[in-house]
Amino acid sequence: MFRGTHTTRLDEKGRLKVPADFKRQIDENYGVQFYITSRTGTVAEVYPMQEWEEIERKLAAAPDSHPVKKKFLKVTNFYGQVVEMDGQGRLLLPAALRETAKLKGEVAVMGSLKHLLVRNAEELRKEIAAEPFTEEDDASLSSLGI
């Protein structure tokens, strides 16, 4: 499971050096191939290929006519790209996604259980400050047994 956040920088070519804690988990549990995509264009979702393939298996079981399935596939394929981690532990983020998500310079790499999220670090700080965790949020999690 991926957890926590690490701040790092993208290089001039748009490559993300995977933070050491996450890299260690990847080396222990996954291969070098990833699917990098987004549902919103504001955050890069970095899936180890076996985790993305599990999502694809579930999607394949749903009817092709399902409107949300179509929408999900359209947006994740638009932003998506299969990427291999290089020998230095770097992933090239798709150019279209780097542009729309403002991914350059300082970025936050966050664990999200089975995948990583990459956000513009300043935008993330602003969002967290503007939308603090509330008592209502706590109550909602309680209904999930958390």
Structure description:
- The protein has 146 residues and is an alpha+beta fold.
- The protein has 6 helices and 8 strands.
- The chain has helices at 20-29, 49-61, 67-79, 95-100, 121-130, 135-142, and strands at 5-9, 15-17, 33-37, 44-48, 81-84, 90-92, 106-112, 115-120.
- A hairpin with a 6-residue loop joins strand 3 and strand 4 (44-48).
- The radius of gyration is 16 Å and the shape is globular.
- The two termini are 17 Å apart.
Secondary-structure topology with pairs:
Elements: E1 5-9, E2 15-17, H1 20-29, E3 33-37, E4 44-48, H2 49-61, H3 67-79, E5 81-84, E6 90-92, H4 95-100, E7 106-112, E8 115-120, H5 121-130, H6 135-142
What would the keywords be for this entry?
Chemotaxis protein chec, two-stranded antiparallel sheet, 146 residues, six-stranded antiparallel beta sheet
